[in-house]
Structure formats: C-alpha cells, structure tokens
Amino acid sequence: MENMNKAIVLLSGGLDSVVSLAVIRETCSEVICLTFNYGQKSYLAEKKASEIISKYYKTEHKIIDLDWLSIISTSSLTTNETIPYISKENLNNISIAQNSAKSVWVPNRNGLFVNIAACFAESYNFNTIVFGANKEEGTTFKDNSIQFVNAINSSLENSTNTNIKLIAPLINMTKEEIVKLAIQKEVPLELIHSCYISEEKHCGFCESCQRLKRALELNNRKDIIDKIFEQD
After folding, report:
1. Contact 40, 78 (CB under 8 A)
2. Rg of the chain (C-alpha set)
3. How many other C-beta atoms are found inside a 10 Å radius of the C-beta of residue 177?
4. Considering the entire predicted model, what is its pTM?
5. How many other β-carbons are positioned within 10 Å of the β-carbon of residue 166?
6. Side-chain-side CA neighbours of residue 1 (13 Å)
7. Following CA atoms 91, 175, 143, 102 in sequence, which dihedral angle do they give, to the nearest 10 degrees?
8. Which residues of the chain have pLDDT under 50?
9. Residue 128: helix, strand or coil by DSSP?
10. Residues 6+ apart with CB under 8 A from 67
11. DSSP helix/strand/coil, 64
C-alpha cells in the first residue's frame, strides 16, 4: 500500500516519544508529529522540545489545543495539586508507583490523543499512529500497556474507514533499554524534556525524572544527566 510509510507520531518531547520518532523515521518517508496542550504544567517545555526535535528529524509539527481537558481534570499535572516526588529506591515499589500514577493520571488522555491522531491519519491517508508506551510504565499506567494498544486497534477497525494501526515500538522495553537504543541511534538526548514541570532543566525528583535519570546512570551517561538535570 502506498501509505504504509507515513505515520502520525504523538510527540511530547520526552524520552519515549522521541526515541519512538527516531525508530519510525527510519522507515517512513513522511511523518507528522502532534504535540498536545491540555493545560499540563510541563507544556511550555514540551512545546519547545517537540519543536526542536521535529526540526531535527525533519518532520511536520502541529500543536493541538485541548484546554477543556485541564478544566475537567483533577490531575496534579494540570491543577495546583503538588506533583508527587519519588525516590530512585522506590521506583520498583508497586504501591508507591501506583500512588504516583494515580496523582498524575489525566482522564482518558492517551485514548483521546490516539483518536485525534486517527482523525489526522484518515484525513491524510496515513495508516500508522506511533506512541511511546513502554514496559516499565506499563506496569502502573494501563494506557501504556499492550492491552491498551490491542484494544485501541480493535476500536479503530470500526471507528475509521481505512486500515489505521496504533504501534508502540518500545512496548517491551524498560527505560534502561530505551536509553541504550537511543544511544545506538544517536538520538539527541540533550534536547528531550521528560519532566512533569516546565523549568529550563529537569527537576530530578518527579517520577518521570527519576526513571530517566536511573536509565541514564545505568547506561553510563552522566554527561547527559549533567546537561539536562538541575544539579544538587
């Protein structure tokens, strides 16, 4: 099929979405990246990172505004509630990780993003949607799981008139493995923004930061840590 090499990528500017873009860019002649503004505290930093990354990979980039989502959400990502900090030692503590996930959960966020991407895919005659779901976060975020991917694909069979598929290239990988892949593919890790807040550098304390920092440490990339994280 002529549109097999065209993809819509959900790009937040964070590790997983950027590495997913790098992977899919190798086989796609045309890519459109979508970045969503749903009132998240990290939006300005995500927007900046996504714009730079899109230019780096020579892809079209669109911002989708979803202001209403922040109005109905009670997530600590979109309200005045404090975003939970989690220590590196507790990242594998399922109970603590689940509490962190509950705090930052935005209602049906990934489901909404994928369906918006499907509107673009069907309109532009693309057949692939790409997002950065991964094994590590799939343990606490059910919309990062293979079950989510399969369920969405079943739904897309009936909600679209074209053969659109959602894929998650990193679905069976941990953060450590994702960073290793990023290094192999020479992904510009110094340009990403994975933090839950929108400062110039990563805070280093939220769950997303802690997972990224641990993965970088395990891959002996202190140079990247020094560049993108606030130093103690």
Report:
1. yes
2. 17
3. 17
4. 0.95
5. 25
6. 12
7. 20
8. 1-4
9. strand
10. 37, 38, 39
11. strand
